[in-house]
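Z., the sequence and structure:
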Amino acid sequence: MQKIKIISATFFTPLFLWIGTSAMAQSFISQSLNSQTEIAEYSGISDTKESERLSIDSDVGELTGRKELNRDNLQQIDDLTEIGEYNLVLSELEKLEDPPEGLFNSNFALKEYKLFLSIKAHYHLGHTSLVEELADQYLMKYVNGDHFHWIYYYLSSVLHSQGRELKQVYLVTEDFFSDLPKQERHNLRKYLIEDALNQKEFLSAVYFLEDENGKLIQGYEFWIDEIIENISELDDIEQILERYDKEELFYQLQLRKVQLLIRDGRHPQAEDYYNQLVLEAESDSDHFEKLVEIYEVIRLAKDTRSYKIGVILPFSHKRFKRLAGEVLDGLEMGMQKIEVEGRPIQLVLKDSSQKDASPEFKRLSPKLQLLEKQQLVKNHVKDLVENHGVIAILGPLARSTSLAAGEAAKEYRIPVISFSLTENLGKDHPFLFRFQQNKLQEAKVLANYAMDYLHAQRFVLFYSAGSKSFDIMQSFADEIKSKGGEIVGISRISPKQKDFSNAFRSFTGGLRKLSEEEAEELKRTREQPDPIVDFDAIFLPTGTRTLKVAMDFAKFFEAEKVWFLSGSSVNVRENQLLDNTRRLRFVDTYPVSSVKTYLQPFFEAHWKFYNFRAHYYTPTNYTIYGYEALEIIGKLMQNQENFNREALKNAIASLESFRVLTGEVSVDQDGELNKQLKVLKIVGTDTVEVF
């Protein structure tokens, strides 16, 4: 049969595939278009008519751009994956036609290879939903396929990136790791271990650190600490102890078992277990030395005083001692109402700035000063636990000293509640919590309120110099965009800015290029162009002084009818000096600038306690947070199950809608003690809740 001849390189090859395509890829395309498809001779097929039919099919394939699914074509496409031509890979895979069933025995392997290449290309192109869909199909059809381990890796990587549970973990064997390159091996172990920890499958997490001989793999010791740290049930410890009775891991497991016994208030059992370990270790001097640490854990637990709370604040700091005093005011007020085991709360105070005034400290570089302050805080934590037996620690205020306290807290397994302004301090410190305003959350709440209740759609954003202010602005913008809103202007301001002319000109069209007619008219009349106010709201998270200036300029530029949105910095008594606040909304957990609320008894009690001072100040948010932090500890300590430091830490980490003075507290996974935010407005000289 005469074959149909076709002019090559003009059909089914989009021009964009040639642009920017590598030389190897271009050569591949050229060869595939210029060559005729050869029909392989298969065993058992000798019929002339069948050969003619295949020849016709080949000719039609050339006309339609289709190619035969065979090992050579797949290998050529696989070569394209090695040079990163993933879009071209998908294009070429679409051209492959599955051969008729029964033509050859390798049909299964070819289809498996083709699906593998498709998943690989989609994975590298970031098509996560397609990777998951196709990988699920692969796991159902080709569980014994040559590329099964790679497909499982791609699927696990996609699920892990989305924070989702891995699939069919029971299929994983040591072969998975030996068949993958070093980096992918490491990644897969990480995915599996983190997934096991999330599912509280601690024994499985340890299994993924073993080699084929059941020995722990060197280089992965850092995972051991995290796995053991997260074990919360004695049964899990017992199972792992039975498996690793002669490993270095054994001592860490023993220590964790004692910690859990103490957490559960089982001090006699902890001592009995320790005595048993001592008897077994008489001939092992190295192990005996390690038991000293276990004994110290038991001693410190027995010496814990449930009514004692440590406080670390910068009492002597030149700038922050007033804030420290405000927190202490709240703590002292809370002490009057809280008892534990029939005894009043006792505070043990430590000064995080006690070295600041010394000549030696002042001569140090800023970096060394920071290290000195951090070490001082760690020493304070040690002293509070070992010598005073405190059950918890409140403070510090600064980010760096709070992180130092969090590091020491893990060693002593004692909860620390910081009053730092920096969000998410406890992300990598399981015993560190933060109880303060959350500016990022404030921005999100304002964004949702503006769109859902004010029906604003177009926004102008201001932010101050510094990464923190930019992060707040970004948090607001992200929330607006996620809800379909639009950001029409962004401007940076200085902390004490007094002139907003250029910013408002840019927002209202004052800086736009004018037509010749407009320019001539304005020159003749000597007037300014009319402002164009095409936005609905202004987000300006700043203090009252800067906010007042901005609102005055908004009125001048005929933008007085837009909404002004601000954060908790406006929730102060000075906000009564603001003018025209009808369209101002801000957020906080309570209206501190007004005493005509449920907080009036608290404000009155504060006056009775501290009105003797030469310079009396009403309570601030630091006073409130100090009072409520002690309120949380005091209420949790009414339950004897929380008379241990780790048990108390777990109770704090589990808080949900926990009632305190100004609202309800819940804790997130990063240790943030969050109170429900309320939208506020000013009515006369009072701040009131909108809802």
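The domain at 308-434 is CATH 3.40.50.2300 (Rossmann fold). The chain has a mean pLDDT of 84.

Let me know what you think.
H.
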